[in-house]
Each structure stands twice: as C-alpha cells, then as structure tokens.
Design goal:
By secondary structure, the protein is mainly α. The protein contains nine helices and no strands. The chain is globular and about 50 Å long.
C-alpha cells in the first residue's frame, strides 16, 4: 500500500508545479503565442514526470524485495502496466491542480488535499471501500488509488496476474481521459 501512496503523492506534487511555475515566472506567455495546443503543452509537461515516476516505481520494488524482503508473488508485468496507468492519472491530477491555481503554494496544497485525502480516507487504505456509505463510497469507487491498492495487494500478497485483476484496469483507463481532459479544458490559452 505504501508504493501506490508514494506514486500518487510525489508525481502529482511535482507535476503540480509544472504549469504554475511558468505562470509565476511569466514564461507561460510563450505558450500563449505559439500554435501549440493545450493538450500538447500539458502532455509535454507530464511525460517527464511519468518517466520519473516509473523509475521511482522500479526502485521502490527493488527496495521492497531486497531490503524489506517482500516478494512479488504475482505478475510483475501486471503491476508495471497498472503502475503506468496509475502514474499517468496521478500526474494528471497534478496538472489539473496546476491549471486551476496561480501560485506554487496553492498548487501544492490543492494537490495534497485532492490526492492524499481521498487516497487515505476513501480508497481502501484503512477501511475497505465496500464498508463506506454515501459520498465516501462514491469517491472510493471513482478514485484511481482504490484500484491501484487492489492491484498492488493482489500482485504482492496474493500471487495474482492480469487475468485476475483485469477488471480493476478499466477504472484506471477511464480516469486518464477524464482527468487530463479536465486539465485541458481548464487551461486557458489566453491570459485575462
């Protein structure tokens, strides 16, 4: 459970600084005057952090196996594929925070509250999502961390593979266009 939590927090916070830093420095004006689309701009900001997050994932897995003696009993390829989808969604959350805020401090705060609070309270880290009711259950069912926790537990602790976990990939796949699409819609091509 620690690996998905770290893969949510760190990439999201780093990506949250990507666009808002340009707003603070004034270099976002370069984006305003180029023919680059909003999607191209955001993907250009996101992809380096996705690569960095995947490198962090490999290092954390190596540490868990070598230092903490927690073996990967299931399919590592399944875990890696889920992690790629998950970090794209996590960095998308950071981009979303970056597009709606004007300062680095507010982007960091928005990202921490918007990513960690739902992950810890509603995604099944402490209590199963099935035990939640009302709005908490809806958040738990929609939040990408819920499915990454299930996949991570399944691969590390239950020796599960893709055939066993494929249903949990669908919400991760659906979250990506929703999160990135929201960031694209909220990023203004013109400053007011």
């Amino acid at each position: 459970v620690v690996i998905p939590l770290l893969l949510l927090m760190l990439p999201a916070m780093l990506t949250a600084l990507a666009v808002v830093r340009e707003k603070e420095l004034g270099s976002i004006t370069n984006f305003y005057v180029t023919p680059t689309t909003r999607l191209e701009f955001l993907l250009g900001k996101q992809l380096p952090y996705v690569g960095l997050a995947m490198a962090n994932f490999l290092l954390m897995c190596a540490l868990s196996v070598s230092l903490f003696r927690v073996p990967v009993t299931g399919s590592f390829a399944t875990l890696a594929a889920a992690t790629l989808l998950y970090v794209v969604a996590a960095t998308g959350l950071g981009l979303l925070a970056s597009t709606v805020t004007r300062s680095q401090i507010s982007a960091m705060f928005f990202t921490m509250v918007g990513s960690m609070l739902p992950a810890v309270q509603f995604a099944g880290m402490n209590n199963p999502v099935s035990a939640l009711e009302g709005v908490g259950r809806v958040i738990g069912d929609l939040y990408p961390a819920t499915y990454m926790f299930i996949i991570s537990r399944g691969v590390f602790g239950k020796a599960l593979g893709f055939a066993d976990l494929q249903a949990h990939f669908v919400p991760l796949l659906l979250a990506i266009p929703v999160i990135i699409g929201s960031a694209v819609l909220l990023l203004k091509k013109q400053e007011r």
